[in-house]
Amino acid sequence: MMLLALMVIPIATALAIAAGPVRLARVSAAFGSVAVLGLTIGAMAAFDWSDAAAFQFGFSIPLVAELGVTLSGGVDSVAMWLIVLTALLQPLCVWGSFTAITDREKTYYAWLMALQAAMIGVFAARDLIFFYVCFEFTLLPMWILINLYGSTNRRKAATKFFLFTFTGSIIALAGLVYVAYVAAIRASTVPGQLGAWSFDIATLEAAARAMSLREQALVLLALMAGFAVKVPLFPLHTWLPLAHTEAPTAGSVILAGVLLKLGTYAIYRFVLPFVPVAVHEYAELIAVICIIGILYGGLICWVQRDVKKLVAYSSVAHLGFCILGMFALNGTGLAGSVMYMINHGLSTGALFFCIGFMYERYHTRSLEEVGGLASRMPIWSFFVVFFSMASVGLPGLNGFVSEFLCLLGAFQSGSISLGVGGSEGPLGPWFAAVAGAGMIVAAIYLLFMVGKVVFGPLREPPGHHHHGPLPVDLSRREVAVLVPLALGCLVLGVFPTPVLRTLEAPIEQTLAVVQANVSERSQLAAGNEAGAAGEEDAR
């Protein structure tokens, strides 16, 4: 029941905060989030990493037996690492909010803890209804955090965020329900009638793979329309910059660090195994969309003068790499994609923390009003440079590992790969080459940002004479928030092998499903063509 406890503790903490006095809100949130982190560390120790593809810590509680709805969960190594990321960021978000949030603290911390429970539920779910309820519930706490605690344009940002992601989720639900309907048809003993309904994810995987290519294509369209909004992929990304810019610091960190990964994780968990033939058929189209997003997002970043919006648009480019590696449909690309989910959460989440700490002191994010802060805030400047280099993909830091693997996976995918490590897949060297140009663009806009905000002559907003209750440079609390993220970026950049090894088994299992179904359909199509040719010769 360890996995269930990871969801119960945040919910119990949220209720305790709502019922308790205001003065205990932040302390309760801190204790609750640290308790989840401690239990997560215990789960990591108890997890059988030698059997990383198996779903462990399983539980199943029947809810609506007549419809096959159960509260069931379990995690493999991919889900485990994303829960670890969620558990790590949560206490940092709580601690990082101590001076930023001074009004309606009970509401803020209660919804922040409720959001954590829903995010963990998404990664832990092994029942489709349970997954979808958690997936959708994340919208409510984030909407409240943006709407109540954001900047001047917060209501528009919150509404746009909710409408975009909710609409996409409804479309994805239609695709998932159709898969459940197909499974119910297959479970029937009477042709043409529905059998017992089941929303067990493993059961639905087997049923979905029996669909025709046309059915799989329609389900692929529905699922990608829903989950791509959450990632977000171009051109469904337009809600993200405004939401990031207007959200409070912790909201931006959670949004970039975990909430966007709900979309990438859902694509990995549902799209690849549910509709493998359609994925292989349309992977090139999706890869083209990813590359457009990589280049477009980078070029938009190049002209931004709001530093928070610049980092927000960078997520569109970064997660384009993540999905590109996933649709390379080989072990290298998928490993890079999963690593990108983790690494992006660390480095981009840390950059939002840095921007938030600057905003608390200067109340502006404009590159025209503030800059040259290395002389005023050397500790802060060090972390900005460090995390920017991680986002650029500097060798030795975590961003390099994931970007390199995603590009290498795309390069190796396809029957023609210049004789270097080729593997059967839908992409190839040209996809990697064009996407690789996005790394150059990323280096330009991030180094431009660092040059403006950190180096050069000191620029402070007119009339700015003091920093209020905060010290000029980072406080010990703020340094303590950033240090774990910096250590994560460094460790995963220098020594990523232990994590990559834990991902091998589930990735191989997912690829085996895709390749077996693609091969089976290819053989069937070849047999049909041979039969048709034989009939033609006989005539």
Q: What are the key terms here?
A:
2 strands; 539 residues; mainly alpha; globular; single chain
Q: What structural category characterises the helix and strand content?
A: mainly alpha
Largest sheet: 2 strands, antiparallel
**Spatial order of the strands forming the largest sheet:** 1-2
Number of helices: 19
Beta-strand proportion: under 5%
Order of helices and strands: HHEEHHHHHHHHHHHHHHHHH
List the uncertain runs: 416-422
Distance between the termini: 67 Å
Average pLDDT number = 85
How many domains, as an integer? 1
User: Whole-number radius of gyration?
Assistant: 24 Å
The 3D shape can be described as globular
Number of beta-strand segments:
2
> How much helix is in the residues?
over 70%
Topology:
Layout: H1 2-19, H2 25-46, E1 56-64, E2 69-75, H3 77-96, H4 105-124, H5 128-137, H6 139-149, H7 154-187, H8 201-208, H9 213-230, H10 239-246, H11 249-274, H12 276-302, H13 307-326, H14 331-362, H15 378-392, H16 398-412, H17 429-453, H18 476-494, H19 497-538
Antiparallel strand pairs: 1-2
